[in-house]
């Protein structure tokens, strides 16, 4: 059972639900999220009804999940780096941010964040100050970053500006540790504002003074009504502890587009075609033997090592075989599958099988052009969110300046090394590129390599001097 399915079950078990608890728009979004979650996991709608005792010809060919996984591989397959302002790698800001991400298990956390966004269309993070220990060995507590499940979240924005969030609402399930009762929980993070006045006392505007965090619960024992859990807490920063971003742009909405937005029906078609081919092969994949004038019985059985003889001169025995290898059906299946990849702007690697030996770097990028354009859109949206996250953590840590820097994404495509080296050599020979930059592009640490090269030259020089001294000594001895 998926998290979303279990989440919906708890809400439906609340017999006296407050209508304000979960409006129809949020419920419809949750239903859509549940559909995306099931198709990503491979839990697809069955295309054929199966009677008891009959073979099941339903097939699940989970290309929906494959689309998401390939998207994640392009986005994070080669990793990313955080580059804060300043050239010094030992800059306090850079060291601080790197320490935070190391403590939060950067690779795993980024994959969770991107996976949630790809499947559900919107990604969320939450900052918990002093929530994780530093990995430097020092007894320092750093901000913890939590990837929030999008199915929990509701965003309320200014009616005329969807970029201005007024409230984040998280709804999730929990079990009371004392009563063992299953409850619904709600955490509301709401903007607090104060009026700004001029010298005459006139209101000139408003400023954010913080965010009020309120926790509530509802269960059978509360009659489905929200009850407070402790006192509200004030978050004394102009930004909230929760942030979000769109996986793909959706103008006019604060929620983004999922990678699975338009392909659920196409995925069903693929499963239907695959199931039909499977059914045809099951019924007609082996020849059916029939006879004429072979006796009075309607059915004759014999083993593979037995011979059947007939006395009638008109008797005949023949096989009823398929006259086709289902070429048209398999071609239609490939067409529908290709349509799914085209809609999602994903490269079908099967189409590259006969071109791999002759692909150049330029040709590879042309074939991946649409997928790379989609990738760059994702990088811009997620990159902006991560930069803002770095800024917030610097502010929380009291580190100045609090510029979140920029994100350096890895190259998602494999490169033809011969072409790459030839290009770098051309630029070096014509003075267009420094050796240090070329070394970095090739993945080397330029300073470390220069030290090693100098050390090797010194060893070689000392070796040559030792050999020369030995020869001179032997010469003087007449040897």
Report on this structure:
- The chain is α+β, with helices and mostly antiparallel strands.
- The protein folds into 2 domains: 1-165 and 230-285 and 323-415, no CATH class; 419-479, no CATH class.
- It is 41% helix and 21% strand.
- The protein has 12 helices and 13 strands.
- Helix 6 packs antiparallel against helix 7 (327-343).
- The N and C termini lie far apart (88 Å).
- Mean pLDDT is 83; it is low at 7-21.
> Can you count the helices?
12
Order of helices and strands: HHHEHHEEEEEEEEEHEEHHHEHHH
Number of separate domains? 2
DSSP E strands, number: 13
Mean pLDDT, to the nearest integer, reads: 83
- Shape estimate: flat
Largest sheet: 6 strands, antiparallel
The portion of residues forming beta strands comes to 15-25%
Cα separation of the termini? 88 Å
Provide key terms for this protein.
six-stranded antiparallel beta sheet, flat, 21% strand, alpha+beta, 479 residues
Summary of the model, kept short:
The chain is of the alpha+beta class and about 475 residues long.
Secondary structure layout plus pairing:
Layout: H1 3-13, H2 24-41, H3 63-76, E1 80-83, H4 92-103, H5 106-120, E2 122-133, E3 141-148, E4 153-158, E5 161-175, E6 182-197, E7 203-218, E8 227-228, E9 233-235, E10 242-246, H6 264-284, E11 288-292, E12 316-320, H7 327-343, H8 361-367, H9 369-396, E13 406-409, H10 417-429, H11 435-441, H12 446-476
Helix pairs in contact: 3-5, 6-7
């Amino acid at each position: 059972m998926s998290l979303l399915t279990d989440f919906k079950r708890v809400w439906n078990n609340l017999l006296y639900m407050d209508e304000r608890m979960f409006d129809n728009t949020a419920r419809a979004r949750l239903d859509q999220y549940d559909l995306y979650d099931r198709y990503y996991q491979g839990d697809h709608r069955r295309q054929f009804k199966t009677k008891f005792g009959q073979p099941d010809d339903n097939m699940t060919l989970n290309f929906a999940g494959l689309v998401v996984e390939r998207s994640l591989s392009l986005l994070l397959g080669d990793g990313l780096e955080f580059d804060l302002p300043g050239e010094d790698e030992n800059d306090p800001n850079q060291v601080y941010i790197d320490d935070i991400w190391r403590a939060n298990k950067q690779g795993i956390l980024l994959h969770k964040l991107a996976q949630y966004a790809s499947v559900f269309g919107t990604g969320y993070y939450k900052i918990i100050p002093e929530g994780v220990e530093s990995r430097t060995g020092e007894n320092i507590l750093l901000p913890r970053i939590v990837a929030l499940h999008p199915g929990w979240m509701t965003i309320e924005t200014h009616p005329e500006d969807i970029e201005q969030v007024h409230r984040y609402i998280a709804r999730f399930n929990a079990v009371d540790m004392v009563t063992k009762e299953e409850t619904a929980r709600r955490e509301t993070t709401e903007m607090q504002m104060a009026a700004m006045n001029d010298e005459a006392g006139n209101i000139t505007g408003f400023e954010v003074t913080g965010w009020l965090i309120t926790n509530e619960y509802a269960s059978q024992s509360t009659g489905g009504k929200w009850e407070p859990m402790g006192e509200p807490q004030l978050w004394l920063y102009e930004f909230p502890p929760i942030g979000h971003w769109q996986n793909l742009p959706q103008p006019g909405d604060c929620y983004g587009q999922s990678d699975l937005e338009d392909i659920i029906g196409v995925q069903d078609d693929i499963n239907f075609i695959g199931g039909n081919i499977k059914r045809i092969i099951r019924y007609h994949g082996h020849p059916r033997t029939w006879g004429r004038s072979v006796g009075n019985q309607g059915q004759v059985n014999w083993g593979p090592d037995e011979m059947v003889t007939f006395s009638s001169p008109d008797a005949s025995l023949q096989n009823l075989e398929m006259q086709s290898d289902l070429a048209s059906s398999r071609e239609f299946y490939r067409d529908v599958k290709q349509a799914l990849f085209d809609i999602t702007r994903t490269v079908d690697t099967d189409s590259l099988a006969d071109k791999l030996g002759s692909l150049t770097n330029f040709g590879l990028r042309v074939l991946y052009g649409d997928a790379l354009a989609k990738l760059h859109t994702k990088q811009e949206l997620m990159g902006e969110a991560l930069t803002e996250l770095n800024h917030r953590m610097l502010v929380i840590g009291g580190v100045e300046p609090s510029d979140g820097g920029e994100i350096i994404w890895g190259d998602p495509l494999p490169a033809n090394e011969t072409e790459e080296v030839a290009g770098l050599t051309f630029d070096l020979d014509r003075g267009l590129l420094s050796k240090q930059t070329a070394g970095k592009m090739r993945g080397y640490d330029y300073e470390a390599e220069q030290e090693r090269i100098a050390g090797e030259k010194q060893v070689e020089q000392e070796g040559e001097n030792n050999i020369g001294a030995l020869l001179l000594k032997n010469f003087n001895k007449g040897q």
